[in-house]
Amino acid sequence: MPIFAQSTERSLRVSRPVLAPAAVPADPSIFTPKLTRQSSTRRQPAVEPAFAGIEARPFLKWAGGKRQLLPQLLSRVPGAFRRYHEPFVGGGALFFALQARQQLPQGARLSDINPELVNAYQVVRDRVETLIVLLGAFRNEEDFYYEIRAQDPQTLDPVQRAARLLYLNRTCFNGLFRENRDGRFNVPFGRYRNLQILRENDLRAASRALRGICIEQSSFDALADCVEPGDFVYFDPPYAPLSRTASFTSYSRGGFDDEAQRRLGALVRALSARGVHVLLSNSSAPLIFDIYDHPEHLVEQVLASRAINSRADRRGKVHEVLVAAGPHVDSLRRRQASQPLSLSA
Fold it and tell me: Which of 205, 214, 235 lies closest to 100, judged by CA?
């Protein structure tokens, strides 16, 4: 029997009406407290003020997340652009930063090939209150973790799938998303003490930032048919490995090999030629310098903090590459000549 519907001693603290697959409602208003005789005389405070002052930020830890690199990225964002696109959305750090600065007046399209990640974004956008109720029943316990991990996402509804991903992401080792060849999440338990699984107001702030945003599951190749001149695209693909043992490109089945990196490079050149502003981040592997060695590209090395590594002594500052292409490159070069852009986190 799926853990979401279990009534064993281990899951007695989990509310069956909330977690049973058929009982998770589409309308989160079912969880609104009913007025009693005592409370009906006073209007209950709205939820909005509790998180109105919270700036939206990534609600997932993600390998290669860009919160530490935001100063360098923001200094290279075009001064004006139409629609924003992020086809490897991951944690979405740049999107949330631009949204907080009200720099997305014409909206955005966020996409990724990872179906679990895309579903989580859609649920946070559309059904955040139901998600909060569900996550509130989850526990930071090793046995519980492995039961949740063993669940097949395809047997769960969208809110349950999102709750499962957020829970595993918070409690697994180093916040990694890694699947085996069968598409099964296989990261071990993280053993974190005093872990806060649910940050409900952070989720509400993220939901507010995602309102009206297009969120789709698609490959980066599909972007060629979605952009218009004047749009801004930020590519943050799985990084090219600096060595064979450093590879972490299989964030989903199929991975992201050298051929995919070269296809992406060809797309960057094609979009630039169409008048699209492009910014890309990647590792400082020789392959990346080879792909983006083009007179119309601005290629720079920056120092970034690496937070995810199986060995603590290999975390710290590393060189990464930022590539700018398209109409805003000339302005970046002029600014660079007069006032150097930010090169370190």
Answer: 205
| Closest C-alpha among 128, 125, 51, 120 to residue 91 | 120
Q: What is the mean pLDDT of residues 144-156?
A: 94
| Pick from 102, 189, 203: nearest CA to 141 | 189
pLDDT at 65: 65
Residue 315 token pair: 């975390």
Single out the residue of 295, 297, 305, 300 nearest to residue 328, CA to CA: 297
**Cα-based distances in Å from 143 to 54, 139, 150:** 34, 10, 11
Q: In whole angstroms, give the CA distance from residue 269 to residue 296.
A: 9
Please say whether the beta carbons of 122 and 158 come within 8 A. yes
pTM: 0.81
In tens, the pLDDT along 326-343 reads: 999 999 999 888 776 555
For residue 89, count CB atoms less than 10 angstroms from its CB and return exposed for 0-12, middle for 13-18, buried for 19 or more: buried
Tokens representing 150 are: 């063993």
- Residues 6+ positions from 26 with CB-CB distance below 8 Å: 127
State whether CATH 3.40.1190.20 applies to domain 70-113+218-338: no
Q: What is the pLDDT of residue 254?
A: 59
Query: What is the residue extent of each domain of the chain?
Result: 70-113+218-338
Runs of H (alpha helix) within 218-302 = 258-273, 286-291
**Cross-strand pairs, 85:** 109, 233
Question: What's the gap between Cα 101 and its chain centre?
Answer: 18
Given a cut of 70, whether residue 306 has pLDDT beyond it is: no
Evaluate the CA torsion angle 18, 22, 28, 30 in order and state its sign: negative
